[in-house]
Design goal:
single chain, alpha/beta, 20% helix
Length: 293
């Protein structure tokens, strides 16, 4: 496919689902959030990861928007630990324009309790799903959904992923998935603001092992330069200052620690007692000027 094909797919889609692999790398999360934020406001877009985000991802803008379930097409009502054989019938009514579901238990049996009622969504309602990174299609648990008819699946990664589902591949050699996404955002004419640029810069730093990976080339530095021009900031974890390296109270938000002065006769921090101090330390000080006005 040519480089404009990704833009063509996005132009045709009204809703996009960005999928992260299970236990994603920092680079993959940064790339996924970069794409998600660039589409937000132009498309109906969601970003999903089946596993929890780790603490180190919290420096990425928009990480709180990542959800664990993509199902949003059908509402499923489930009665957990309630024997189905105890139900006589299920009916529904439309009362004053509101839907009402009625579950009638058999004679002598209780209706399901509140704590036994489980509500969840199933089925993917999206025109396009974009897989970020990964090695196997099985890394994306949501790709196995049966109700995905009509969804176009695209993969953005450094190499093709293995699996049976037909995917539209936009894989290309790069220093990181974030560099690849940065180039596709530019080629597709998508939004690029300081938050998006900062996420992608951090992803490139992490994915390229601090720009030491053999895949780093002139294109990598060109991408970083363009991201910095867009307002992106290089904020890698290696650059974060260690609060312990600064004096107490010198960093905003930290309290200054006052230490009590040693009582008379006690040794101070340098181990000099009052008895050992020179006598002139205790005499009045007289300051003399050397100039005459």
């Amino acid at each position: 496919m040519n480089n404009n094909s990704f833009k063509s797919l996005l132009d045709e889609a009204k809703s996009v689902l960005v999928l992260l692999p299970y236990n994603p790398k920092f680079d993959e999360v940064a790339a996924g959030l970069g794409l998600y934020l660039s589409l937000k406001g132009e498309k109906e877009v969601n970003i999903v990861c089946a596993s929890d985000m780790v603490v180190s991802f919290n420096r990425l803008v928009g990480v709180n928007k990542i959800v664990k379930e993509a199902g949003n097409k059908n509402l499923v009502v489930k009665f957990a630990e309630y024997p189905a054989k105890d139900i006589e019938k299920v009916s529904y009514d439309i009362i004053d324009g509101e839907f009402q579901l009625t579950v009638v238990p058999k004679t002598g049996f209780q209706a399901p309790k509140n704590e036994q009622i489980s509500l969840k969504y199933s089925g993917i309602s999206a025109d396009m799903a974009v897989l970020i990174g990964g090695i196997e299609q099985s890394d994306f648990s949501l790709i196995s959904e049966k109700d995905d008819t009509g969804i176009k699946f695209a993969h953005l990664g450094l190499s093709p992923i293995r699996g049976q589902k037909e995917l539209i591949s936009f894989d290309r050699p790069s220093s990181s998935v974030s560099e690849l996404v940065a180039s596709l955002i530019k080629e597709s004419g998508l939004a690029l603001d300081p938050d998006i640029a900062t996420n992608l810069l951090m992803g490139i730093e992490e994915g390229s092992q601090g720009l030491t990976a053999p895949e780093v080339n002139a294109d990598t530095f060109t991408a970083m330069s363009e991201l910095m021009r867009a307002g992106g900031r290089r904020v890698s974890k290696q650059q974060m200052p260690d609060p312990g390296a600064f004096p107490q109270g010198s960093i905003p938000g930290t309290a200054f620690k006052f230490e009590a002065e040693p009582e008379s006769g006690e040794s101070d921090k340098e181990g000099i007692s009052e008895a050992d101090a020179p006598q002139d330390w205790f005499e009045p000080k007289v300051y003399k000027g050397t100039s005459v006005s």
